[in-house]
Amino acid sequence: MASSALGTILAVLASLIITANVLVAIVLLRLIQKSGYKGHYFVLNLAVADAMVGFTVMGLVMDEFSKPFYPPQIFCVLRMAFVTSSSAASILSLTLVACDRHLAIRKPFHYFQLVTDLRVGVQLVGLWLLAAIIGFLPVFVPVFQKISAQEKCSFFGVFHPTYMLTVSCIGFFPALFLFIYLYCDMLKIASVHVQHIREVEHAGLAGSCPPPHTTSDMKALRTVAILIGCFALSWLPFFIASIVQTVCTECFPYKVIESYLWLLGLCNSLLNPLLYSCWQKDVRLQFSQLAASVKKRVLLHLGNRHRFPGRGTKSLPTVSCLRLQD
């Protein structure tokens, strides 16, 4: 019963993750075609990574609803490696988004010269290579594998606790500390901008030379701060419990970490597209335009069906005029 409930929750969550991120990806593709802004590529990459998280979780959903079976060790290792690599790509994508916004705020006049197509491509390729190395590390280093005879694939069923400790130390916590540094530095820059505005207004020059980047900087700061907070609240309990589990195997049951704390971490892949669609004005505008376009096509299709009701239906039998005269 508990397994079916967990499978249902995973299925609903994975479906929402895939749907939300696919919609955001479509909107961002339209936005990139119109504006050509390089920073949207990092957000698009985040949506792709989160969508992959949803697709990999679907494989675990199938295990929850399937009949008990005993898959080979390498099957579970590869399946969980795909889950781990997609989650790592999502975390690294958040890092790139934060770095991009930090660069845009720190050097607004040199941003377009520094962020070129070649550099964006190199960063994205390096991101996915690093995510693949993190996820598939137990495949190439058998020491990180754990021999178990479980019916279903799970993190602690195939990965040794030392692997989770390694991933936490070299992956999650450096990314979290980088987030905190970027947030504090952008907060410092924003406070300087606000102080500059007050000085200009006090001098009576606000109407003649208003700073053009202040509003966008504050919005970027708010977006990054919310993303960092949601990311920390989503993944921090899972990684802390994993580290404690390495030191004290009896402190946390494996089921609590895998069924609840990991589920909380997956919610971050659902929050990311919702935050970007709610807080970025250009993304919201593209969403409204896309919805209006779909609504227009649906109404046009329904109007054509009402105008030509005979289309696609079987023709009615005709009656001869001679028979009517009789």
TrEMBL record:
GO terms for cellular component: plasma membrane. GO terms for molecular function: G protein-coupled receptor activity. The chain crosses the membrane at residues 6-29, 41-61, 81-99, 120-143, 163-184, 224-247, 259-279. It is a multi-pass membrane protein. InterPro entries: GPCR_Rhodpsn, GPCR_Rhodpsn_7TM. Keywords: Cell membrane, G-protein coupled receptor, Membrane, Receptor, Transducer, Transmembrane, Transmembrane helix. Residues 20-276 form the G-protein coupled receptors family 1 profile domain. It holds the Pfam family 7tm_1. It is found in: Cell membrane. PANTHER family: G-PROTEIN COUPLED RECEPTOR. Belongs to the G-protein coupled receptor 1 family. This is G protein-coupled receptor 119.
